[in-house]
Amino acid sequence: xxxxxxxxxxxxxxxxxxxxxxxxxxxxxxxxxxxxxxxxxxxxxxxxxxxxxxxxxxxxxxxxxxxxxxxxxxxxxxxxxxxxxxxxxxxxxxxxxxxxxxxxxxxxxxxxxxxxxxxxxxxxxxxxxxxxxxxxxxxxxxxxxxxxxxxxxxxxxxxxxxxxxxxxxxxxxxxxxxxxxxxxxxxxxxxxxxxxxxxxxxxxxxxxxxxxxxxxxxxxxxxxxxxxxxxxxxxxxxxxxxxxxxxxxxxxxxxxxxxxxxxxxxxxxxxxxxxxxxxxxxxxxxxxxxxxxxxxxxxxxxxxxxxxxxxxxxxxxxxxxxxxxxxxxxxxxxxxxxxxxxxxxxxxxxxxxxxxxxxxxxxxxxxxxxxxxxxxxxxxxxxxxxxxxxxxxxxxxxxxxxxxxxxxxxxxxxxxxxxxxxxxx
Length: 425
What we know:
By secondary structure, the chain is mostly helical.
């Protein structure tokens, strides 16, 4: 019993439950708990860039094989693009089958865009591919590590790691030793921060329920249900099939393996809140450090499965609610555009909504102000987005690690409570 109470899983679950109850019965007080959730996420973001930089540099420098690094990067991008495409198509199919917006008959003239004006102003996200590519290059190396731009930190870390391989093991070893010690210190900080996870989850969940209220779910309930069902289908069928047929791991066993991280994501509505913890867990489970260091951070910009499902479903839902149904050509255009704009959605709360506002004007006749229709429930859907993103990136790391022969399957099966003779769920 003592072991159960001391587990992070149980403590975060209690924090979420308390936050929900406070939001329902004491909404005014619960709203004031928002800084608890914000503070926890800021603590995590504080160490993400240094963690990524150190782990990637150490991994690449220790690999001593530039071709191997390039092969891992190429495999990751190909996998991400394929899975992203599948997620977009599944979202489009489900929203057309269920038709959650049909019958609402919303008058476009009645839309009030003031509540989403600060999102609409950001509608250049992903529009200019050249500008986006240039934004990956940091202004200076300190800024690459100090900022919360994961891809900038990733780019500089890869270049620095490759640079260390060029100067030889003898000259590079002192730097590698320092970064190894630095990494140990980072993981010690992570362990301390995780003690605050239940409080952060309570504050974030209490604010969400207190501010928006459970009643706000009813008017757009069909969209929420459709979205959650689609995410569940994607996790169980798509990701589950990949894990089972390629890695011989059942999806439910895999979900149990990362249950603590998923609960933290549920409480904070941010997949970024568990990035350091997820990287450490995957390393401990037998995935090589260079692969974890490359795949997980890159996945947070290129493999947002839950966000992709949300974007297609929300865009088509809005067109259905306004009786401005998209043609097949427009839906195909939507898919192609989202293959680009979805990469601009970072794994933090609200980014999917910003990307939706950026994408609608490109598709056609649907007014961008119409995103206000789903503003009230966007926060409630962000939990499913973040959880799906986290599961997708964790699974991607294992799959790519096995493909690149960087997975110790004996350790992996042991961590999942499996034995080689019984690898199913």
